[in-house]
Design a protein that fits this description.
Elements (H helix, E strand, L loop, with lengths): L17 H7 L19 E15 L5 E14 L4 E10 L11 E12 L5 E8 L22 H5 L5 E11 L3 E8 L29 E8 L5 E11 L11 E13 L2 E12 L2 H12 L8 E16 L3 E17 L11 E14 L2 E12 L9 E9 L1
Antiparallel strand pairs: 1-2, 1-16, 2-3, 3-4, 4-5, 5-6, 6-7, 7-8, 8-9, 9-10, 10-11, 11-12, 12-13, 13-14, 14-15, 15-16
Length: 388
């Protein structure tokens, strides 16, 4: 691992692996020694990665085993001023042409130009700096077998695009990231998954109108991390010049950790302007009204506690989470929301870490929605995730 002149995050006491995960994902700003003329580290290429294996048993269905993710991260330190970070992910074990089976994605591939502690430049394929999990999505880092609904349907984790921007740390613990990135494609939005299918993912990206995204974090209070994020862009390039689809996302989150207890809270709201025109245009194109919401909203609350810790036997923690998502919180004039898209879930479970970089997870999800026709199933899940 690259360890020279890099500052590690300390906001999650007890999460010993978090520093390594955040480092390989290159989410941290350079340490002060960069701007003070510290000795250049040797040129080094490093390989790391993570895996995620799951068993899921939804109510009324057979169980499913899935090697969900296999990820390799390659980093290279050209000098004390320039580094390269990449992340290649294979989902569902294999990729077969013309069949919806597996994905191979380049989720990160960028150069960092490290100029000072307060100001640095980053360019390439970037993780969008929105929310808690999108930039730190390795299995040992978060509770639960599946990622929260808020970080699936509202923040479409893993969300990455081509772009460039700046990042740094100002004062004591105030960190920022601001990027110009390729926009979303509103023609692929859905009522069920919100913005998720609209990600362009760096593949022959339309960049007619550049979007903007950013995040501000404060870590100046021990054990507490607070953050606010945004994304804004014109996403209707398939419908111009007739109309455009401005999309605006705001997000706020907080994490507090002390003596093995951690509390998390997150709120996300998305506005899709001209959603009525978007639905009309897509209805003419595909023959079915997609019923995309004008306003999407969600939140989560999570509490966890590590009740067992042994240098020899590892650690055990338990958690409970309330997760709510409504992708049709407000509809265009004349459109009717559907109850199955106003969803929430109570998730209870536990994680066992035999080593800090290995997580064995189990949880039970009590799913609910507002529909009288479509039932939200409960599910029992077991996961095995590890990082090296």
């Amino acid at each position: 691992m690259i360890t020279q002149n890099i500052s590690f995050e300390e906001q999650d006491p007890g999460n010993r692996w978090l520093a390594a995960v955040a480092l390989a994902a290159a989410l941290l700003v350079p340490a002060t020694s960069y701007s003070q003329g510290g000795a250049a580290p040797p040129r080094a290429t490093n390989l790391s990665g993570y895996m995620d294996f799951q068993y899921r048993k939804p109510q009324f269905q057979d169980g499913e085993l899935d090697f969900r993710r296999f990820v390799l991260l390659v980093t290279h330190q050209f000098s004390d001023r320039i580094r390269f970070v990449s992340e290649l992910e294979l989902e569902h074990a294999f990729v077969e042409g013309m069949v919806d089976a597996g994905e191979l994605e380049l989720e990160q591939a960028y150069l960092d130009f490290l100029l000072s502690r307060a100001f640095n430049v980053r360019a390439g394929i970037l993780l969008i700096p929105v929310g808690i999990i999108n930039e730190r999505h390795e299995p040992p880092v978060y509770y639960g077998v599946e990622r929260p609904m808020v970080d699936t349907f509202l923040v479409p984790t893993t969300w990455f695009e081509v772009g460039a921007g700046i990042h740094g740390e100002v004062g004591r613990g105030l960190r920022y990231r601001i990027y110009a990135v390729s926009p979303l494609n509103a023609a692929l939005f859905t009522a069920e998954e919100g913005l998720r299918e609209g990600r362009q993912k760096g593949s022959r990206t339309n960049a007619g109108r550049i979007a903007a995204t950013g995040r501000l974090e404060y870590l100046g209070i021990r054990g507490l991390t607070t953050g606010v994020s945004f994304w804004t862009g014109q996403s209707g390039f398939e419908f111009r010049p007739t109309f455009d689809v401005p999309v605006h996302l705001i997000e706020a989150d907080a994490r507090y950790s002390r003596r093995g207890t951690e509390l998390r809270a997150q709120f996300v709201e998305i506005s899709v302007s001209n959603a009525g025109q978007l639905n009309d245009a897509l209805t003419r194109r595909i023959g079915v009204d997609p019923n995309i919401g004008q306003r999407m909203r969600g939140a989560l609350l999570e509490a966890s506690h590590r009740f067992f810790s042994s240098p020899r036997l590892g650690e055990i923690g338990a958690f409970v989470r309330y997760d709510k998502v409504n992708t049709q919180a407000r509809m265009p004039a004349g459109a009717v929301p559907l109850g199955q898209f106003d969803r929430d879930a109570i998730v209870v479970g536990a994680t066992y870490w035999p080593e800090p970089d290995i997580a064995v997870k189990v949880d039970y999800v009590i799913g609910r929605n507002r529909s009288t026709v479509v039932q939200a199933p409960n599910s029992f899940n077991v996961g095995l995730g590890w990082w090296f």
